[in-house]
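Input.
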Amino acid sequence: MAQLYRPIHFPSRPVFGRKIPSITTFVKNSPSIPIRDDVIHINTQSGSQQWDGLKHYGLTDYYNVFYNDTPAGSLSEGEMEIHDPTEIDHARVKLGMHNWSNHGICGRRVLLDFVHYYTADGKALPYDPWTTHPTSVAELKACAKKQGVTFRQADILLLRVGFTRKYCAVHNDAKAALRGGPEVDSAISEDVKRFLWNNHFAAIASDQPSLERWPAPQGMPQLYQTIIGLWGMPIGKCLLQFRRRRAPFAHRRPHPQPGEFFDLEALSEVCKETGRYTFFFTSWPLNIIGGAASPPNAASRVPSPVHTFTLYSIRLEPRLFDNGAIRSEGVNIKCCSNNIVIKS
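Output.
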């Protein structure tokens, strides 16, 4: 399994002017006594990744309602202190993140890697991922076709457009300059909305701080209003980095591998090496009653590169087979995904 989110400390200067994360560890008694506590203050929208919930964004044009025609003034705001879980006014918290936390967001995730799609032949990325540029349905379909991806109902769609690749490469001053809100890409056209709807995606996420084209073109309906306010579909942003456990084989041949921690850049390399751009994904948002967003707390089963292992003197006990013991010398086992092929 692989961890799909970064520490909540990052980014140290969140975009759109949101609160800087504050994580404080303090001494309970004396520094010499091994007891510590933490106090954490974060904006659930300010992290390097999060799920935008149904309470995060509604229909702001003319209607001023959240999902399912819920009036903005009917939902809770301000600090919420709950003493008894049986005395919650569910009418005030009905669109909160706790609803998704009850069952999680799990399914088949599909990666569309636009960076590799455009640069695989040695060409430069035809856009600056920090500037506004639309993504068309033709590009989405062409990228999926090149990767051999066929969409299925309830897929979780992940887009890699290169925002975080540039973010990790620039100096801290350039990162801090994004505080006011960067220009970002978006698949905002009506055709793209139809593409998302007709493919019945369960959720959509990207490696950028906003799925919305920002600043939004004047007179253009915002994508968030459609996806969250009308469809009730989760939006994930900046799902940057994950950690993969080492294979549980003690005797294996050396194989070039990325480091223990790698982001979508390395995930792209693994997908390219294996030829697989789909994988199982699971996410359990924080159980925040009435919450508007949450860190993803996500993990995934990552497609693994092909490894060859050489095992010696394997003995299968006689009781397992009617024809007696089986002994094999120098068996080569080739592992790829869930399939194991044994060659003597």
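The radius of gyration is 24 Å.
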